[in-house]
Fold:
Amino acid sequence: MATVRFTLLNDELQAEVSRGATLLDAASRAGVKLNSICGGEGICGKCKVIVETGEVDVGSTSTLTREEIKNGYTLACQTQVKSDLEVRVPPESTATKGKILIDEDAQRFKALTSDGVGSSVKYEPLIEKYYLELPEPSLKDNLSDHRRIYRELRRKKNLPIMQTGLKVFKRSSSLLRDNDWKVTPTLGRRGDTTEVIQLEGGNTSDTNYGVAVDIGTTTVVAHLLDLVTSDTLDAEATYNSQMKYGEEVTRRIRHGEEDGREDLQKALANDINDLIYALVDRNGVKLKDVTSVMCSGNTAMLHFLLGLEASHIRKKPYVPNTTKPPPIRAAEVGIKVNPRGLLYFMPAIGGWVGGDVTSGVLSTGIHKTDQLTMLTDIGTNGEILIGNSDWMMSCAASAGPAFEGTGIRSGMRASRGAIDKVEFAEGDLIYSVIGDTKPEGICGSGLIDLVASLFEGGFVNRSGKLMPDHSDRIEEEEGELKFILEKPSKTGRDGELAVFQSEIKNLINAKAAIYSGARILLKSLDLDIDDLDQLLIAGGFGSYLNREKAKILGLIPDLPSEKIKFVGNTSIIGAKMALLSQQAYEESREISESVTYYDLIDYPNYFEEFTAAKFLPHTDLSQFGSVDFSEKAGGD
Structure:
């Protein structure tokens, strides 16, 4: 065994690993979350570390620059431990917790659902408690103990089908008598059946909590709810630990096919547990009083958490194991709340359109409006839905990690030190940094702003190629052009901040996937962009997207700004609604069944549409009539 000690800013963490283990494995054991887009295959170059002392075997260094190699950098995933080590972790190599950003539109939308339920659904949690004062048995009233409980419950609520587990039966008789027939059953909804999931002595009806969880590919968010008052007590977020197996869903699915299914399941369960622990600790809540968890996420995440085989999702005809799993004990997947607490899932729509979209429809009310609405969640797996109360159709467009601020050498997520907004004013580069500190990288929104601003300023042409004669910030490194945001002396990291030509190309490809997906979905319905009454942009990324820059890039349709609304994290809002309302939960199941899934590959001119969108903003400028191209860089 060897001891590996990691130094990250002011923190020191260590782990003992076998000789021959990689530094990426050692970091994971030590609790250091390193960026690893490629899942440890040595091709993304994001897990760079510096070995200060000790012996290692160094593998591939093809993604490192000569300067980085000279300065002692190595890739954690390609470096094996040979002895005790001292390792320094540069800040840009870590997946640190980010600031959750909410714009004004999202705040207004949140206010509309501030009670956690919304005005159109009845407050009736999936898990409820009822205090009972039961009449003592007599010769004239000699019902069995469990029938006596059922009778009293049915006097309070219509409960045609009920059941109780053996563990509850075993202790119910003594508990009833020890508490003078004053008890509090906890009722859980399981389809058409109501289960008495626990029985407590005395009146505990005022302590009942649930947790709503948005399982994103990149970020996991949890909200703690008081199921008695419907209040949201607190929120917490972390980065999805599955990232070490690959930032894209398809890479994680492949890891699961390689006997890694348990890795994916445990990583996600541990993340959810960490969030729940933080929430209950901060709010003085006992873990045993958390009786329910509602998860919302894409279809693959549902499979990962349940430990299901997900391989068929990525293979034609893209059929998942399930889209609507029944409620199960949370303990069955390792989520540590009340031992008999229930775990629910927002129902998915198809293999690539998940419960997060169902939540989006539920929370925005698309299924109840006559306005033709497009809902889009811009992320690694871009999901798009169009419809209204009469019909709904959805599709998914694989965009890759560019919008998450990853997949680029100076990229990072929207956390402290990230450049999140960029503008050129009179030829000068102006940017803002989260936390008002030295920039350490650029996140997705900043990258969109940058490329759109480069186009506005004439520094890139319509095909996204950098124009070296137009700015002294454009230089060449090892045969590739790059745009320098900041020199090393002005950054909070080791080295300069720059965006390379290939990275601009990747962003344009990603935006082309999203935009062409939206266009194809409209065309398949014989509709045009002008037919849309509103465009709703969901998710953490959409919450701080600059509308005008996104239109210049050609990421979103050229609609009037008043038609474009940011609706925040509708995945978590929908999950909260379903947890707090049996009616909303049933609506979510109806929504998932009523949406038609459309596979973009079936569109006869898919490739042509995608190729046409790989320009700024598009090959057909008439689609972006509000954008002034008179002073933009010309040429292809």
About this structure: The mean pLDDT is 89. The chain has five domains: 2-93, 127-201, 209-345, 355-401+508-624, 411-498. The chain has 15 helices and 30 strands. The CA atoms of residues 32 and 578 lie 35 Å apart.
